[in-house]
Design brief:
It comes from Populus alba (White poplar). The chain has about 575 residues and is α+β, with helices and mostly antiparallel strands. Among the domains are: about 10-335, Methylamine Dehydrogenase, Chain H (7 Propeller); about 515-580, no CATH class. About 20% of the residues lie in helices and about 25% in strands. The chain is built from 8 helices and 27 strands. The strands form 9 sheets. A 4-stranded antiparallel β-sheet has the order 4-5-6-7, with no helix packed on it. α7 runs antiparallel to α8. The protein is rod-shaped and about 140 Å long.
Length: about 575
């Protein structure tokens, strides 16, 4: 699996242009060589130049023999990749360069072709890579990652500039050279190094990247250290790897002291590819393909001749065109070659690169997130309304002073009672007991009625408003006291009733005066029943609907009134209040 360099955005173009011009060779993002493992056999395919033709041809060879060779001589492929039991080819038509078509062959265990089908036909792919069991590509215009089968890395929305595919993981370079890995293989996904890199490659269970000084950093393969030096590309297999030096020679390392065959150590290569234990490289001088890695390959034998060293392109950098490659490509296209790198002789610019930005994850609102947001907002609103309601009730109740001194007719503790049941004449002067009795009666009236709109004034305020209850302020008199006109400090005109002390007989006389003389005088219990009904009627016609009693309150008041009327104490008689005349 080859590695590829990434393109940089415009904001830091000057810095990266200076850096890349001295450090970065041109690397092909589309491979023209593929390696497939089918049972115990290896299928090596390459895009080969056909003499006299303007398009390449797909050629394959089985090692050892026994694998059915795909035949599609009429189709021109721009890239090929392979894996365990499959081979895929990318078709990019010159008449429609904005679209790509990806077709794949699948092989049975015995090496015969089991199926041939198209798996992709949409926007053009700028890169195509394959692991052992999955194929991935980068969409040219959006850098979106597409993988097949589609269940692999389905939730991926990374903006990769280049990527590499392993077994159960994908690693790629972001726009500033940061590495990001995806998948389930934690030895690679959770262990990738931090920093800025120019190239990346993946094997079955490990990955490597080249930093801006040309050095290798590898992870996922414990115990095996990559070689020292300066490199321009890599190809990784199964617990082994090979890297292309800046002088275009190859060095290999890995499990079991894996190394490049002696015959190829001085050979200069244009590109290298790998799959599991097999490695292949295109020789730079004559574009012959050599393979090594197991006993089926003889490093002295050429697998194919005239292999395309890279895909045909419409433009290359200055002096980066392979001479004579125009005859292998459609009109107006050519194959680009590696630039000579002078990493060791160049001095990095003094300007420090900008710090890599934090990778921002694109957040998409799912249905569950929207539901949580709605429920949270509604719940918060309800909580605020409840708190506001209780605060309103609390502040309102703090302005109310409700006094409850018990029954209106009840005697205070310690009051003597005559044997006949009536209250005895007080022995203390009447003036001393007048104030408590009056306060008790007033508070009882407040507690039985709707006190929500009552105000309590101090005696000093009342005295000032009535000019010390001046006779000039009197506007009326009654059996229970006089009524005075007064003006409060805020300008309100009010009427103030001043209750006057009267004895028991005066109350009885008043009652007898207003009642029908033919009807016996009421008992105190009957009077209490009438009070219940009166206040119940007053509460039922209040303007504020929330202050009206509920049906349960109405029934309760009626039951109290009825209970008061039905009381017939033996200790009291109707003559207690005096006879009527």
């Amino acid at each position: 699996m080859a590695c590829y360099f990434f393109s940089q955005p415009l904001p830091h173009l000057f810095f990266y242009f200076v850096l890349f011009s001295s450090l970065t060779p041109f690397v092909f993002p589309l491979s023209t060589v593929s390696i497939s493992e089918i049972s115990n056999k290896t299928l090596v395919c390459a895009l080969v130049n056909v003499p006299g033709a303007t398009q390449s041809s797909l050629n394959c060879s089985s090692f050892p023999s026994g694998i059915q060779i795909p035949s599609n001589s009429k189709t021109s492929f721009s890239a090929i990749v392979g894996g365990d039991g499959f081979l895929c080819g990318l078709i990019s038509l010159s008449l429609s360069p904005a679209t790509s078509t990806l077709v794949c062959w699948r092989f049975s265990v015995n090496g015969t072709i089991m199926s041939y089908k198209r798996i992709y036909q949409r926007l053009a792919l700028s890169q195509l890579e394959a692991g052992n069991s999955v194929t991935c590509g980068l969409v040219n215009t959006t850098n979106r990652l597409e993988c097949w089968p589609r269940r692999k890395f389905r939730s991926v929305d990374q903006n990769f500039s280049s990527m590499a595919v392993g077994e159960d993981f994908v690693c790629g370079l972001l726009e500033y050279g940061n590495i990001a890995c995806l998948g389930s293989y934690k030895a690679v996904v959770g262990q990738f190094p931090k920093g800025n890199y120019s190239a990346i490659a993946a094997g079955s269970r490990h990955a490597c990247a080249i930093n801006f000084t040309g050095e290798l950093d590898c992870w996922g393969m414990p115990g095996e250290k990559p070689p020292q030096g300066e490199f321009i590309s890599m190809a990784l297999g199964e617990n082994r790897g090979c890297a292309l030096r800046t002088n275009e020679t190859v060095v290999c390392w890995g499990q079991g002291n894996f190394s490049l065959p002696e015959r190829l150590r001085e050979t200069r290569f244009s590109t290298i590819e790998a799959k599991r234990k097999v490695f292949c490289g295109v020789q730079k001088s004559d574009f012959s393909l050599y393979c090594w890695g197991n006993e089926n390959f003889n490093p002295n034998s050429i697998v194919f001749k005239s292999v395309l060293p890279g895909p045909c392109r419409s433009s290359c950098g200055l002096d980066d065109i392979i001479g004579g490659s125009g005859r292998w490509c459609p009109e107006g296209q050519q194959i680009c070659r590696h630039s000579k790198s002078n990493i060791g002789n160049s001095v990095p610019p003094a300007v420090a690169p900008p710090p890599p930005p934090t990778l921002e994850k694109r957040c998409k609102w799912s249905g569950k997130m929207i539901a949580f947001l709605v429920v949270g907002c509604v719940g918060s609103l309800i909580l605020l309304l409840v708190v506001g309601f209780f605060l309103f009730k609390y502040c309102k109740c703090r302005g109310c002073r409700v006094h409850d001194s018990g029954r209106l007719d009840g005697a205070g503790p310690g009051a003597p009672v005559e044997q006949g049941g009536g209250p005895s004449q007080p022995h203390a002067p009447q003036a001393e007991e007048a104030s408590p009795v009056l306060e008790k009666r007033l508070s009882q009236l407040v507690s039985m009625g709707n006190a929500g709109h009552l105000e309590e004034f101090s005696l000093q305020v009342i005295l000032e408003a009535t000019n010390n209850f001046s006779h000039d302020k009197t506007i009326g008199t009654g059996s229970f006291g006089s009524v005075y006109q007064a003006t409060l400090e805020d300008g309100r005109e009010v009427a103030i009733k001043r209750a006057e002390i009267s004895n028991t007989s005066s109350y009885a006389d008043e009652i007898h005066r207003v009642l029908d003389s033919r009807v016996p005088p009421p008992t105190p219990f009957e009077i209490e029943a009438v009070i219940y009904i009166g206040y119940l009627a007053a509460d039922c016609v209040t303007l504020e609907g929330r202050d009206r009693p509920s049906m349960a309150g109405v029934v309760n008041s009626l039951e109290k009134a009825l209970a008061a009327c039905l009381v017939h104490p033996t200790s009291l008689s109707r003559s207690t209040t005096g006879g009527s005349t």
